[in-house]
Amino acid sequence: MTEKPPHIHVAIKSFEHKYWEDIAALFQCPRCNWGTLQLPYQSKDDIKKKLENPPQGMHRLIAVLPEEDTAIGMLGIHPSYGRRAHAAYLGMFVHDDYQGAGVGSALMEAAIQFCDQWLNLRRLELHVYVDNLAARRLYDKFGFEQEGIAKEYAYRDGEFVDSYIMARLRHRTD
Predict the structure, then answer these.
(1) What is the pTM of this model?
(2) How far apart are alpha carbons 102 and 65 in whole angstroms?
(3) How large is the angle between the packed helices 103-117 and 133-141, nearest 10 degrees?
């Protein structure tokens, strides 16, 4: 495993189309693929189409290196509707070269503030592979609690892997 990079400063912004190629690079990072439901070998054309046509209601935050104006992380907020309008599902990834440098924390902090203070969401949910210890530590740090386990949740690298179902309830963390 590579050495942990030093903590860096990032600006958190809403996704803009001008960053699509930076975000496409994230989809192609091996550790990003390993820790998410994304598949390797996605074409830049397919990724561009995904970014141009997000699901209705989805909010996307990106982490940008201010000096280079390069996006190195993205967090998607997928609000629910109807009787689950108080909840949203989160999905995040950070460029392989910047994992462990505070980028995930910056994205998560901004997302929680946005969800709590602007979207009035009470419940944030996510899945994390049981063997993704760094991500689990990040989610623990922000008040997410394990609620269950999804057995054989996804097929990754030739085998089925379990994931923890985690959630942060606003009234329990305020």
Answers:
(1) 0.91
(2) 12
(3) 40
DSSP string, 119-169: S---EEEEEEETT-HHHHHHHHHTT-EEEEEEEEEEEETTEEEEEEEEEEE
Which residue in 167, 128, 165 sits closest to 149, CA to CA? 165
CA distances from residue 9 to 84, 107, 116, 156 in whole angstroms, order as listed: 35, 11, 23, 32
CATH code of the domain made up of 11-127: 3.40.630.30
Return all residues near 128 (Cβ < 8 A) that are at least 6 apart. Answer: 35, 135, 136, 139, 163, 164, 166
Q: Which residue has the tokens 């030739």?
A: 158
Q: Which helix (H) or strand (E) is 106 found in, with range? A: helix 103-117
Residue range 21-72, pLDDT digits in tens: 999 999 889 888 899 998 888 899 999 999 999 999 999 999 999 999 999 9
DSSP 17-79: GGGHHHHHHHHT-HHHHHHSSPPSS--HHHHHHHHHSPPTT-EEEEEEETTTTEEEEEEEEEE
d(CA 162, CA 105) in angstroms, rounded, equals 24
Domain positions in the chain: 11-127
